[in-house]
Specification:
The complex is a heterodimer of chains A (116) and B (111). The model of chain A has no long low-confidence stretch (mean pLDDT 93). In chain A, the strands form three sheets. In chain A, strands 2, 5, 6, 10, 11 and 12 form a six-stranded mixed beta sheet that branches. Chain A has 116 residues and is mostly beta strands. In chain A, 0% of the residues lie in helices and 52% in strands. Chain B is mostly beta strands and 111 residues long. Chain B is 0% helix and 55% strand. Chain B is built from no helices and eleven strands. In chain B, the strands form two sheets. In chain B, strands 2, 4, 5, 6, 9, 10 and 11 form a seven-stranded mixed beta sheet that branches. In chain B, a hairpin with a 5-residue loop joins strand 7 and strand 8. Chain B is globular and about 35 Å long. The model of chain B has no long low-confidence stretch (mean pLDDT 94). Classes of the chains: A mainly beta (116), B mainly beta (111).
Chain lengths: 116, 111
């Protein structure tokens, strides 16, 4: 079974600084997707960034980027120029690629605090 | 496009009762997945429906069931509620496996 592990229950960073959230996963599949979701206090899950396993290039979305190390099964999220609105729970998630592969496996989450 | 909507947003039930939660996906999305979120167990996959058929199922007891209608709207039902069923129930819709869009959730409290 696939598993996703986030080893940092909580992280904090000063506004405008950079923070990296860690995620490791375990799977025997070779083709899959990895995601970072953000869940603010409103509880609405928001997709931050997506990485296809077959792509070697790391995904980037504005201030958010990932470091995808397929051999090491590592998928970290870097947030640059942190803003107060970035404060939230961040979840790393995995799903295999293919028809019917809609099951997301989530990590336990990392609570990110932004200090003004 | 309107996002994923879930009703009701909050629900309070007592042990032994049953409950039905509703989810309307984004227009054009045919897959609807349900997740349970609790402080202890985190986010866990319940089941997924596609074109009115259950395509995936998580490791939950038979008290948890669901269905999907021809317009892709989905309902999940929990019978004989237990205290441990108190959770945030999230619904997500998707067109492909590479992006799921979540609704705001239904907060269920079982007393």
């Amino acid at each position: 079974a696939q598993t996703v592990t986030q080893s940092q229950p909580e992280m904090s960073v000063q506004e405008a600084e950079t923070v990296t959230l860690s995620c490791t996963y375990d799977t025997s599949e070779s083709d899959y997707y990895l995601f970072w979701y953000k869940q603010p206090p409103s509880r609405q899950m928001i997709l931050v960034i997506r990485q296809e396993a077959y792509k070697q290039q790391n995904a980037t979305e504005n201030r958010f980027s990932v470091n995808f190390q397929k051999a090491a099964k590592s998928f970290s999220l870097k947030i640059s120029d942190s803003q107060l609105g970035d404060a939230a729970m961040y979840f790393c998630a995995y799903t295999r690629r293919g028809q019917g592969a809609q099951k997301l496996v989530f990590g336990q989450g990392t609570r990110l605090t932004i200090n003004p | 496009k309107a996002g994923v909507t879930q009703t009701p947003r909050y629900l309070i039930k007592t042990r032994g009762q049953q409950v039905t939660l509703s989810c309307s996906p984004i227009s054009g999305h045919r897959s609807v997945s349900w997740y349970q979120q609790t402080p202890g167990q985190g986010l866990q996959f319940l089941f997924e429906y596609f074109s009115e058929t259950q395509r995936n199922k998580g490791n939950f007891p038979g008290r948890f069931s669901g269905r999907q209608f021809s317009n892709s709207r989905s309902e999940m039902n929990v019978s004989t509620l237990e205290l441990g069923d108190s959770a945030l129930y999230l619904c997500a819709s998707s067109w492909t496996s590479h992006e799921q869009f979540f609704g705001p959730g239904t907060r269920l409290t079982v007393l």
